[in-house]
Please model this.
Amino acid sequence: MTEHYADFFCSRDVVLSLVKAGVPANSKWGALILYMRSITEYDYLSAEQKQQMQDLVMQVIRERDYSETRFKEFVRRQEQILYKPWNKKLEEAFRETVGLIEHIRSQNIQRAKEVKDLRETTINTVRDQNALEDIVVEIRAAFEKVIWQLEADTRDLVEMSYTDQLTKLNNRRAFDRYFRATLTEHVVTGKPMSLMFLDIDHFKAFNDSYGHRIGDQALVTVAGKLMGFAHKYSTMPNRSFFPARFGGEEFIVALPGVGLDEAKEDAESLRNIIEEYNFIIRDHNGQVLQKGIKITVSVGVATLRPEWTASHGERLLDEADRAMYRAKNQGRNRVCAMDEC
Model:
């Protein structure tokens, strides 16, 4: 039976395992399982996705249900695992775009009114037959007001494009810009630079229990703790604390000038601050419905390594991401650093 898997480039041990598990030879099941086994080695998958893929394969092998119906369910679940992060990013990008469009629409309405006011000011100033110098002064002042407001609009739009609309924290776009610029400097100079990845524990269950409105409040709370912690760095030379919402319930912090040991200490302090906070649920009128709810986070920490010769940014992000998922797999509400746990 093993010869039926000869066309698949895999070891004999893997083939024997499939045969022992009862995977039908000459079937699409064997091809799909081998494909999923190989895809877990790809760098573009997160540690959580790789674990979910492995769990899905093991579930099918344990159940030994190789029917057509089960195959379709298996493919659908595999696609959900692969596409879920991208779907979340698309949803967030769509919400940001809707917010920007609404902001631009309201600004355009306001500016149209101001241009009409400018027209009336110009006409009335000339009609009043004031001295020429007075006419010029009034018209210039009216134009300068409109120009100043248009410049303020531009600044607002730039800020909005780099701000997460829910939490008011830096968004992924802002982080990517900051990370690229800062990383280049630290790779060249050899100065330390670390990253923290934070993920709110059991956030889906939290949303299911309390609703998405309360889930949004939890995201805002964690963001507020990150922004508050950033004040520690405001007086420190050669160190920075750049927090951002990475997506969904994940947050990331860039720590230029900070080595691994100090980053671990800060991560533990942050984890403790968030855990000690008593989250309160209020209704739309501000009345307390429930209090004493605990929010916890799992944190992964990584730092640049001098022996890395290429792909420094990708490797640093991947190491912090892996460390975070090790923290989750070991019970959550803890800090794990690269090469530890």
Q: What stands out?
A: The first strand starts at residue 193 and ends at 200. Residues 90-161 form one domain.
